[in-house]
Write a structure and sequence with these properties.
Layout (H helix, E strand, L loop, with lengths): L2 E9 L2 H17 L3 E5 L16 E6 L2 H9 L4 H10 E9 L2
Length: 96
């Protein structure tokens, strides 16, 4: 069953964040990740609990593949670039 990594990102340094994006994508793809949304236009129709900033959705084959990507050694230094240049919330949610 597919799983989705969903990230809401407030980018603080757009130039440095471009480095993150370029490095993260091939690692996600190595774990079967397919980018379904990456910071496109949003229409927030309800925001009682949360007001999103910039949404990224990456589909993985299953929860384990998504978790393996997020936790892999190869992604750790790339994740550090994101943490240094953006504020984020991330969830992994199982698909149907």
């Amino acid at each position: 069953m597919s799983a989705y990594v969903i990230v809401d990102t407030k980018i603080n340094d757009p130039e440095a964040y471009e480095t993150y994006k370029a490095q993260a994508r091939p690692i996600a793809e190595k774990y079967g990740g397919i980018y379904r949304a990456r910071g496109g236009n949003m229409d927030v129709v309800e925001s009682d609990l949360w007001s999103p900033t910039r949404i990224v959705i990456v589909e993985f084959p299953d929860m384990q593949s998504a978790r393996d990507f997020v936790d892999c050694e190869e992604y750790a230094p790339v994740k550090a670039i994101r943490h240094a240049n953006a504020d984020c919330s991330m969830v992994i949610v199982e698909g149907m």
